[in-house]
Amino acid sequence: MATSWTPTSAGSAELQPEELGFLAGGPGRAAEVAIVTLVEAGAVRISRNGVVSPVRTQHRPWTPLEAYVLRAAPRSLGDLVSTVAGSTQAESLRQSLIGRGLVRSVGQRNAVRWARRLLVVAVIAAVLLSMGDLLSFGYVVATVVSAIVLSLLVGRAGRPLTGSGRAAVRRLDRVATTSNRPALVAYYGLLGKVEGHLVWETLGMAPTAAATLKRRPRRNNNGGSASCGGGGCGSCSSRSCGSASGSDGGSSCGSGSSCGGGGGCGGGGGGGD
Amino acid sequence: MVDKLGVGIGWRPEIDLTVEQLDVDFVEVVAENLHVGHLPESVLLLRERGVPVLPHAVSLSLGGAEPVDAGRVAHLGGLAEALGAPFVSDHVCFVRAGGLDSGHLMPLPRTREALDVLVANVKAAQADLPVPLALENVAALLEWPDGELTEGRFLAELVERTDCLLLVDVANLYANARNLGTDVGRFLDEIPLERLAYVHVAGGVEHQGVYHDTHAHAVLPEVLDVLKQLRDRIDPPGVLLERDDDYPADAELAGELAAIRAVLA
Ligand SMILES: [Fe+2]
Which domain of life is it from (chain B) (predicted)? Predict the structure, then answer.
């Protein structure tokens, strides 16, 4: 795995920056971390108009995600993020995080969704039955109260991250500073803001390059708050997603959607003699 | 003799920020990749800084039997005006024949007949261009039979008859010396160096005894030695590093530019 994790990350134990990025913002965020790590290592460069191209360098051990970035380049930054986010390497990263008990599987979260629907059905049924005088009001109250309690209980299990996953993101918060660029990107995303500045700006990226990044459409796929990081371009601020502060089971970190296109890379092509 | 340009590098979209940061006095752009209406931000920024930007064409096919495509000449001229370029360039070659595009810069047979065709095309292009035209020697892997002139004499007569400028690519010259036995010293003695616009330096690689002018490898010391032989005869107005693929780190490109400056010093 990566050799690129800096000593400042010691607080986050054995997790690699792109793994932390995945926890904080999904596969798109992990892709951003992989790209930024490669830029830091001098292995790719990003042009003014956002074309990420490999730099001829000494070979070194890359993470599978980084290796995929190098194979997929040259490509426009936004396009590259979504491509990498949709790669089998990103999916393996998810599986490995599920395996280590940091991310919940889609199956588990679907089960929670169904349990909640059943509770809603039970409450509606109780109300209807009481209206037909088939059930005493006491039972209705009991049903509603137990539905609320059960809903809160399963709600925890419906979150995209497990307790240890959320704890890792909390620890990431402490190392996500401008002196630790991979951690900064992992926590906030390139389009996130830190100390009033956009992260891509802080990293010295050209505005035209950042413009290739697409903010993921905000989708209400869990009847909750904005989903984040599920798909390709995930760059919403980590607040809305999986972070320690306000994760209320509504956000949908790590869902498998991916956002569209991203425009081909510009011009380029044959030089003359 | 044209105005002093200094040491430059080929501007390419992938390395635009690198080019902006390097210590270069001028740049060259591939004309076919730009549009007058929407020039890249990076190119405009270099122009604002006062860095000369020279359009370099690869598709006029001046040595071809067909008349020169007026649209391509107009594009090149329009670009020169948009960029305020002192001159433009293309190659002593043909890229199209019988309506087919070879995609390569094909060398010309060095016969009087081929020279006549080339001269007519160059004059036609010059008539429609707002700035002088410089012509570059190409690398050839094979030679046409029945050549009547050396490459140096061929270029010298071209300059005599069209008053064009010369763009000497020392990597191409090295390639021809290595692969075809061209006499570098004689070539440099035969061409009118006072009509030199600037010089190209590029990287390449030797593979199975043949030198390939790849523009994707480091510049060989042998190529710098050809530059040295040219420098011994004249202080060239400009020398430009061409890199078109497999771009190395900024520091490595800076190193190649420094090596060029060292030869010129
Ligand atoms: Fe050249």
Answer: Bacteria
